Amino acid sequence: MTEHVDVYWSFRSPYSYLVTPDLMQLREDFDIDVHLRPVLPIAIRSKDALFTNDRKPAQYIVMDAFRRGDFLGRTINWPTPDPVVQDFATFAVSDDQPYIHRLTGLGVEAERRGKGVELAYHVSHLIWASGQEWDKGDHLAEAVAKAGLDLADMEKTLEGCDPMTDIEANQNALEAAGHWGVPTMVFKGEPFFGQDRIDTLRWRLEKAGLKKT
Questions:
Q1: Which domain holds residue 151?
Q2: CA distance 9 to 108
Q3: What is the pLDDT of residues 109-151, one digit of tens each?
Q4: Disulfide: which of 27, 45, 131, 147 matches 119 by Cβ 3.0-4.6 Å?
Q5: pLDDT tens, residue by residue, 20-30
């Protein structure tokens, strides 16, 4: 049985976007499966964990994500529209969230179809790197097609199969693994939090004898 890495991942996280090329490379370099486990962003799951009256944590994350993108040579732009409807003056999160629930559901359905990482890669690049209004026209459908999937067919399936059961299970599994943030990669119960821990995960996989020869 092939070993696997579970990746707890959010469409609203710039670091989740930045890790997607590394996730694709893991499968090339190691004899493992990589399972996408989409979760809702912290702004929806636990707003007070990050978005408080102290603006410094949120400001630092934005600054650091753009710096990390520059360091990695990976284009990053703040999404238009933001996948989470949120007032950055007050950090108030709207009760109406048309984008993030749709995107997270698509992530769940893509993983069901064996294309979770591919969808995460292409759709997150549309959202975080293209500079386009990603929800307009055929942009999303085209990104999904690059992952080898059909947007209309996926959304038809999701109409009759609520993805929240899977999303909540993923969120519970993330907490059980000992973390709360994204991206968190988990191998044999050991969590590796953050895009900058990908090299540590690769080291662990090598020690487990999983590097392809």
A1: 3-204
A2: 11
A3: 999 999 999 999 999 999 999 999 999 999 999 999 999 999 9
A4: 147
A5: 999 999 999 99
Instruction: Provide mean pLDDT across the span 48-58.
Output: 69
Q: Nearest CA to 84 among 57, 53, 140, 45?
A: 45
Q: How far is Cα of residue 87 from the mean position of the Cα atoms in its chain?
A: 22
Question: Any idea what the CATH number is for the domain that residue 32 is in?
Answer: 3.40.30.10
Q: Is 76 inside any structural domain?
A: yes
Q: What is the pTM of this model?
A: 0.94
Angle at 9 between CA 36 and CA 171, to 5 degrees: 90
Amino acid at residue number 54: D
Q: Mention every residue, 6+ apart, whose C-beta is less than 8 A from residue 136.
A: none
The maximal CA–CA distance of the chain, rounded, in angstroms, is 53
In a domain, 58, yes or no: yes
Number of domains in the chain: 1
Alpha-helical segments (H) within 96-197: 100-112, 116-129, 139-146, 151-159, 164-176
Distance in angstroms (rounded) separating the CA atoms of residues 11 and 113: 18
